[in-house]
UniProtKB/TrEMBL annotation:
Name of the encoding gene: ggt
Cited Pfam families: G_glu_transpept
Protein name: Glutathione hydrolase proenzyme
Binding site residues for L-glutamate: 464
Gene Ontology biological-process entries: glutathione biosynthetic process; glutathione catabolic process
Native species: Emticicia aquatilis
Length: 571
């Protein structure tokens, strides 16, 4: 409970006098839900939804030049790494779900990297660590982003990579204005990352961190991307870049080596699904947490939300208890399937959900749940989505994990390594226990929805452990509560902290529900009466993008995140 208490003191204000009404969430509009801040974007020939306008523009230009949805998604991701380095970049991992119009099926890509061969569990023991630190060399795993790009491009690309990466390269050399979210994040760089090599020279060479509206350039990253565009994925994993990384790690006490990079591969995997009231919701299986959303939906399907109002005490209570149940399984089972047996089919089955649902008390918040035993019946980021004129759709997510990642920036390359390795468990004998050349538990999850075997919606909600909760809220908003994509994105969100984690932390009593100000006070009071702890905080509710396809009128509908700098555009 100590961890949650400290978190509350630092970030939360316990609600006692919150009286906002849901209608105060946005300015008055003549149509749509009262909280919707803008309309869906509609277009016929292509749609792009990303978290920054320059990234959306780059992808639109690729589509107009005859590129595929995958080409445009790669262009947008490269631009995101340039303009939003605080949440993603080529030092991180990537996952994608692709709807291929030609074969009429979904493809899943796991582009996550593995831990270094030379870093062992014994090394952590020698250092007296019970948890892997967030910064420095210890949490660094192989960055999978670049290989993921080339795997996607090889299967679904049309244009050359020189063209696809040209926008990011140009902005790296010529600069771009620092936007609000980046400016806010950069203020923390000296305090959190200033002690690490190359950070000062890169982010504040004149002793001053760039401010909102300042022009920021990253010629080192532009040069790196140019080498990748010309030399392919091997330029990163086997060539000069790999040697630079190897030398940097040796010089700074790191473990990532040229061999770790040379041996890296992405994995094509089959997405898995559950049917929620006639809609097939698709996620990628572990080492990610996507199936947590499917497990939650299976539990919640047992309740009639046509009779349970949106934002009501009953809605929030049932959602929270379903999350608690599922996150116990998430902590126990989700890991690299090459190192642990994960009963995915049983975990996402309707039968297992029915048994778990019986544990929910409709009138009381649970203080403890155990993980289930499904095996007996047979565990910061950017998100973007793109659709093209041929009907192909891409759901893509990519991340450093936490902020600027590990803080470790290799000499002259212009990017920071992820700290995804922080998510291993250092307790022996667990599914997610650290081991060399093992993929860590991953939080980043793309999603997709089909109906009657045809594409319906490509979407995602970034934000660490919030992501499965965000996915479920979007599906419920659209399916149960009849919202369009933008209304679903703008609707007030809720989060729950305090469940057991794959890194070894146990469940902390009832935990804490936090929510945005649009939830009425009557709901908050009702939740308190059921034993929940309720509060509110800023910035814990993810970043959302979505595209829906209307097959009758052949129109794409796009939506983007109003809480950030999201931008949906089509043509």
């Amino acid at each position: 409970m100590k961890k949650l208490t400290n978190y509350m003191k630092k970030h939360l204000t316990i609600i006692s006098l919150l009286t906002f009404s849901i209608s105060s969430f946005a300015q008055d509009r003549m149509y749509g839900k009262t909280w919707a801040g803008r309309s869906e974007v509609m277009a016929q020939n292509g749609m792009v939804c990303t978290s920054h306008p320059l990234s959306t523009q780059a992808a639109i230009e690729i589509l107009r030049a005859g590129g595929s949805a995958v080409d445009a998604a790669i262009a947008a991701n490269a631009m995101e790494g340039m303009v939003e380095p605080h949440v993603n970049g080529i030092g991180g991992d990537i996952f994608a779900i692709v709807w291929d119009a030609k074969t009429q099926r979904l493809y899943g890509l796991n582009g996550s990297g593995r831990s270094p061969y030379s870093l062992t569990l014994e090394e952590f023991k020698k250092r007296g660590l019970t948890h892997i630190p967030a910064t420095g060399p210890l949490p660094i795993s192989v960055p999978g982003c670049v290989d993921g790009w080339f795997e996607l491009h090889k299967k679904f690309g049309k244009l050359p990579m020189e063209k696809i990466l040209s926008h990011a390269i140009s902005y790296g050399r010529n600069g771009f204005p620092v936007h609000d979210e980046l400016a806010m994040s950069l203020q923390n760089v000296p305090r959190l990352y200033g002690k690490f090599p190359n950070i000062k020279e890169h982010y504040y060479p004149n002793g001053e961190v760039p401010k909102r509206g300042d022009i920021f350039k990253n010629p080192n990253l532009a040069n790196t991307l140019e080498k990748i565009a010309k030399g392919g994925r091997d330029a990163f994993y086997k060539g000069e870049i790999a040697q630079t990384i190897d030398a940097f790690m040796k010089k700074n006490g790191g473990f990532l080596s040229a061999k770790d990079l040379a041996d890296h591969t992405s994995t094509w995997i089959e997405p898995v699904s559950t049917n929620y009231r006639g809609y097939d919701v698709w996620e990628l299986p572990p080492n990610g947490q996507g199936i947590a959303a499917l497990q939650m939906l299976n539990i919640l399907e047992g309740y009639d939300f046509s009779k349970i109002p949106y934002g009501s005490t009953e809605h929030v209570h049932l959602f929270t208890e379903a999350k608690k149940l599922v996150f116990e399984d998430r902590a126990k089972f989700y890991a690299d399937p090459e190192f642990a047996k994960i009963p995915v089919k049983s975990l996402i089955s309707k039968e297992y959900a029915a048994e778990r649902r019986k544990l929910i008390d409709p009138n009381k918040a649970a203080t403890h749940y155990d993980a289930g035993n499904p095996a007996l019946r047979e565990g910061d980021t950017i998100y973007l989505t793109v659709a093209d004129k041929d009907g192909n759709m891409v759901s893509l997510i990519q991340s450093n994990y936490r902020g600027f990642g590990s803080g470790m920036m290799p000499d002259g390359l212009g990017f920071i390594f992820q700290d995804r390795g922080e998510l291993y468990n250092l307790k022996e004998g667990e599914n997610n226990t650290y081991a060399p050349h093992k993929r860590p538990f991953q939080t980043i999850i793309p999603a997709f929805v089909t109906k009657d075997g045809k594409p319906f919606m490509s979407f995602g909600v970034m934000g660490g452990a919030f992501q499965p909760m965000g996915h479920v809220q979007i599906i419920m908003d659209v399916v149960d509560f009849g919202m369009n994509l933008q209304e679903a994105g703008d609707a007030p969100r809720l989060n729950h902290d305090g469940s057991s984690e794959p890194t070894g932390e146990p469940m902390e009593g009832v935990g804490m529900i936090t929510m945005e100000s649009g939830i009425p006070y009557e709901t908050i009071r009702g939740l308190m009466q059921k034993g929940h702890k309720v509060g509110y905080t800023l910035g814990q509710y993810g970043g959302y993008q979505a595209i829906r396809y209307d097959p009758v009128r052949k129109v794409y509908f796009g939506a983007s995140e109003s809480r950030k700098d999201g931008h949906a555009a089509g043509f």
